[in-house]
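1st attempt posting a full record on here, be nice pls
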Amino acid sequence: MPTPPRAAPAAPRTALVHEWVAARAGAEQVFEVLAGLWPDADLHALTVDPAVALDLGGRRVRTTALDALPAPRALTLPLMPAAWAAHARDVQRSYDLVVTSHHAFATSNRLVAPGGVHLAYVHTPARYVWSPELDGRGTSPLLAPARRALAAADHRAARRVTAFAANSAEVARRVERFWGREATVVHPPVDVAAFAAAPAPTLDLPDGFLLALGRFVPYKNHLLAVDVAERARRPLVLAGAGPLLAALRERAATATVPVVVLDRPSRRTVHELLHRAAVLLFPTVEDFGIVPVEAMASGTPVVAPARGGSGETVLDGVSGALVDDLRVDALAAAVPRAEACTPDGCRRRAAAFDVGRFRERVLAWAGAHAGVLR
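the predicted structure (as tokens):
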């Protein structure tokens, strides 16, 4: 009697988890690409700003109870681990495979089923908990008890994760230092081809301007960029959004060189700025930093610190100039060194971080740890 054929194994129930969707920043772009790699996965996040345009295949992102709170995100930080735990009870579903995009407390989610696999792609362990020297939001002595409690909760959550990937060697070192875990380095994706062609100019901007692009928050050091532009005697464009907008406009009004402040630039405007800038100023120690790679993909060299992600992405003398510290004179002196780099050299360097390479490396990492669940 012939043996009946085996039934095909059921597709693994898969979830993708992200911290919050508040802007189309680097972490959100990673979430978007991950969603494309797992097109049937359920999507989860703490909160979602519906004005942020992400291509998630038409899927709804399920959010936690924090999405209904009007409080600023900084005030909800102590509530995040508990919100993730409650969310698992609210959705009443568990998953064979959970892939988490983490930079605060997303690994606290309890969505993985018993015997399932939880993979975490780490942008950084929460900087305001583990590295307050890099992010002033966690430096107040009044926050020390909350930091200790959150660090303990974060460490417990890390023990439940099957495997980690880190967006840079710098972050992999933090994962080992703070959580005692190893992490595979998988650099974030950049759509290099999207930055290849120069858009037609539409903005009235001074020639030879320096560009500082990113959220208007203290650790991005936009005020320092103004000082650098004054020392270098070059015009500057500040582009981004955030709570320091008014302070930056006040500083721009008193600067000794032309300083243009662009609030909430469109993607097309960002594209134009990256192509037309003489140099991107990136005066901050980032976990990875997608903006410098986007600049290099546009053929624009970068001035950045040799520490953090920029030390891994920018090749000194090829796609920009690296500095050992964030002093005004060192950054200003690096500008002409960066300008000596060629657009072709910048673009070749950027190709190492193309989105296609990210997809290949993430799937290889996931396959190594999730096996048939992938």
